Every structure is written in structure tokens, then in C-alpha cells.
Amino acid sequence: MAVKLHRCSSQWVKIKGHPCWRVEKALMDMGIEYERVPGPVRRSKRDAIAEGTGQRLYPDIQFEDGTWYREDSKEMERTIREGRLEEKRG
Q: Which of 2, 19, 43, 67 is deepest in the core (most CB within 10 A)?
């Protein structure tokens, strides 16, 4: 399963407390194929995310079928590490 990780453009920030890194690290640790999609810094420019999830926050996951998954980053990390990401599709 390849997914798109929509995240902030601060890809150099790799600390545990950073929401985007937390989710990206979980994807890497679990061996899930993903494509990093860095997005705009300004929330007002995050139209694609707003259309997909109904809000303008990072991080977000877009599945191959076009459906989206968004929760608090700690919940997203837990879902990924528990192997339940596929349950969030659609």
C-alpha cells in the first residue's frame, strides 16, 4: 500500500514532538511505502487538504483510492504502529 503523506515543508525538523515527523517516522518504522508531499506553510493555501479532510492542518494521509485520513498526530502514529492504517481508508 503506497500512501501520500501531506506534511509541512519543514522536512528538516526531526524531533519526536513535531507532528509531521511523528507520523512520517511511524510510516518508516512500519515499512509502509509513502510519498512525501510537502505543502504550503500558510493554512489559507492548503486548499487540497481542506477539500480532502475538511480542515487545513498537517499531517494528513491520502490513500491511493483518493480517500483521506486525518486525526491528531499522536492518534495517527498509534494507528500506524498498531497496523490499523488500512482500516482508516474510505
A: 19
Number of Cβ within 10 Å of residue 39's Cβ equals 20
Give the three cell numbers for residue 60.
494528513
Record the cell numbers describing residue 84, joined without a space.
Answer: 490499523
Q: What is the pLDDT of residues 56-65, one digit of tens each?
A: 999 999 999 9
User: How much is the pTM?
Assistant: 0.91
| Paired strand residues for 33 | 2
Q: Which domains does the chain have, with CATH numbers?
A: 2-57+67-88 (3.40.30.10)
Measured distance CA(56)–CA(50) in Å, rounded? 5
Cell 500500500 sits on residue = 1
With bands split at pLDDT 50, 70 and 90, how would you rate the model's confidence at 1?
low
